[in-house]
Amino acid sequence: MIARLTGMANRLTRDKADTLLLLLAAVMVLLPHFGHLPLWTSAAVCLTLAWRGAITLRGSRLPPMWLLLPVSLLAMAGVYLTFRSLLGREPGVTMLALLLTFKLLEMHARRDLFVVIFLCFFLLLTNFFYSQSILTALAMIATIIVLLSAQITFQFTGAVPPLAARLKLAGRIFLIAAPLGMLLFVGFPRIQGPLWGLPGDAAGKSGMSDTMSPGSMSSLALSEEVAFRASFKGAAPPKALLYWRGPVMSNYDGRTWNRIAQALLPSAQLRLSRQLAWKGPSYPYEVTLEPGRRQFLFMLELSEPGARTSDGDTFYTGELEQLVRASSDKRLRYSSVAHPNYLAQPDLEPQALRRWLQLPKGYNPRTLRYAAQIQALRAELGDEAAIAAVLDMFRKGFEYTLEPGRLGRDEIDEFLFDTRKGFCEHYSSAFVYVMRAAGLPARVVTGYQGGELNPVDGYYTVRQSDAHAWSEVWLGPQRGWTRIDPTAAVAPERIRTSLAQTLPQAAPFGLQGLADLARDQDSWLAQMRFGISAMNNAWNQWILDYNPNRQQDFLRELATAFGDWRLLAALALCAGLWLMIKNRRSESARDPVDAAYLAFCRQLARHGVHKAPDEGPLGLAQRVRQLNLPREKIAAMTGFLELYGALKYGAPVAQNDNPVARLNSLLKQCR
Question: Is 120 a catalytic residue?
Fold first, then answer.
């Protein structure tokens, strides 16, 4: 591509080639913005760039100011009508993109060229408002090199080097500046929150909600967006135990489940922690939650209270949820310890249990009649027999599907006795409804189940498609709150593997084999996907998640390390070796004639004769003859200078007598 651009540039005049290079840089800056700019803005930008390119190739005159000014005002009016404001991230970036393209039509002086370049650099930064991935960073580096090449091009007053040479020079300039940029990234004080927090910048993120209704989970199941990544400090629990607890739904109005839990006071949180008992193995883990305006921490069930987070405090609710104090749209890291075998709140009072028995009146009469039978069975055989009977009903004739169909007013009745098709929210909702009607306190728990282990870096990747809903039933003082997952009765493979394995989706025509290859954990395509995911995770962990707390920890560890004299001595030794090797290389690469002359000048300095910057060898020889030295040494010195002048500035010297050897021989005599 570089060779092709070089060939095209050689066939154009200097002005045209320089302007087209600047247009190429502007296109590279604007191209990533087309995905989020309004459609009319993208069209206006493309038409303006094409107009400017045609003007350049044809050598036409630029449009007059009386035409550009109304067009610019009309574009600003369009921005206001689109966003109803001229403040904020979106209108600001849109106006900046339009300003850049219109400025390309108004370049009459050398100053205008540099204004365009500086606008390009400023607009380049705004790409990171929308994406901070490693691919975006690489694309921006390439754009910076092209912009620097355009800036360098306008500095030449005579002959211009080829485009490839200018690109290489820009690349070297970038590499020279990179260490300083890395030093600033590591050591410059970091500020909490984004610098672009302007009105209207809050962007909605798909993810788990604090309400649940039919279809809410199935819509998330179609998204492959990463919700969070988790790593275990040691062995991980079996995949069937990877229940990541989030919002707990206890209030049901006949259609939608809602949260009713409130933050507990510190004293109440202390009492709650005493109502939790841990049994069996423990699993320390760390979670990196992707950005999104949320308060919920998705904790492996059941985790100890008081998760340690990178930002802010956490608190427990009365329904065993863990939240942060304020919602945040930043990437959040937290750690805790999970105990899959637990005893939760076994000593709840009957008055406190009433809220988990409430049902709306006038709904689902058939389900209430069925629940009466379950209640009679419970009275005869116990709670576990009643639960087993409902789960056994789900195993017979029910279907696990993403397309259950629409349900009417009595949705539980229609699901249990008519359609018998549903997703996890249908099964958990119906199960909790039947349990409450049968006299057992129950509630719906939402979150995520499972996760894909990346063998490259050992992280579990939990996606939105892993969103799940299950049930909790209070089974008395001996058991407390116990997890019951009705989906496991209908589709046990969903819990053992993943949703993609349970409900394989049809790929486009001709790509089914590729889709199957991607699902195969041992295929080359899956290994490549794991490698890319691990690279993105490392980028997130070490670059994007380098927050003020991590910076302080790193600088504290760095100060402690540099306090050790052994480390300082090792660094000094490495620096000395590097300087010595560099000096040796520079001396070996130096011209032997110049090396001998520099050594001769150092000898003269010992006799009080210092060479002037503009003094040649013959003038220096005149001063040497005036020294009070033996005649033989004066002759050797003048002979050295005459031979050096002949080698550097005189006629070519015959090579058969090895003039460099004679020069070095005379240098020895001078000593």
Answer: no
